Amino acid sequence: MITQVTKGIKISVQTSFEGTFFKNYKMHYAFGYTITIENQSKDAVQLTSRHWKIYDSLNDMETLDGEGVIGKKPVIKPGNSHTYNSGCLLTSPIGAMKGHYNMVLISNSDKFRVYIPTFKFSAPFALN
Predict the structure, then answer these.
(1) Lowest mean pLDDT segment, chosen from 45-49, 72-76, 104-108, 124-128
(2) Is 83 within the bounds of a domain?
(3) Can you give the CATH number for the domain in which 6 is found?
(4) Where's the ApaG domain (predicted)?
(5) In this structure, what are the phi and psi dihedrals at residue 125, rounded to the nearest 5 degrees?
(6) Are the CB atoms for 68 and 46 separated by under 8 Å?
(7) pLDDT tens per residue, range 3-58
(8) Is residue 98 part of a domain?
(9) How many Å apart are CA 89 and CA 117, to the nearest integer?
(10) Nearest to residue 88, comparing CAs of 117, 115, 52, 125?
């Protein structure tokens, strides 16, 4: 598990290889990831948006921006956490992701970024 703390918000990431399949006449590698966002600060926060950089060893880096996570903009009170699962398709058996969440302090509407550590994807058969 990979973890990083920014301004009292701890991000933990666990990855998994889900399998391979053909899409548009090309082999794809499916990876899953589980992220837990734990509020270790003294203030309630809300996750408003996300920014991802996705690295595929056979392709260029892809950037994705979006509202919330999996359709939600969770408010996380001190001592609480929010966990969600998502996935990524790559055209190679090795890759990585990193990024940040845009957060807002509930008490005063101050905005800040929480960094997501780089986490790697690798199909078990790709590393020997």
Answers:
(1) 124-128
(2) yes
(3) 2.60.40.1470
(4) 3-128
(5) -80, -10
(6) no
(7) 999 999 999 999 999 999 998 888 999 999 999 999 999 999 999 999 999 999 98
(8) yes
(9) 19
(10) 52
Domain-embedded: residue 128: no
Tokens 């996750």, residue located: 47
The SS3 of residue 46 is strand
Q: Which amino acid is at 44?
A: A
DSSP type of residue 108: T
Q: How many domains is the chain partitioned into structurally?
A: 1
Q: What own/partner pairs with CB < 8 Å and gap ≥ 24 does 68-73 have?
A: 69/35, 69/101, 73/46, 73/47, 73/48
67 bridge partner residues = 49
| C-beta pairs of 83-86 under 8 Å, 24+ apart in sequence | 83/34, 83/35, 83/36, 83/37, 84/34, 84/35, 85/32, 85/33, 85/34, 86/32, 86/33, 86/35
Q: Are 96 and 59 in contact (CB under 8 A)?
A: no
How crowded is residue 106: how many other Cβ atoms within 10 Å of its Cβ? 14
Q: Say how far apart CA 83 and CA 14 lie, in whole Å.
A: 11
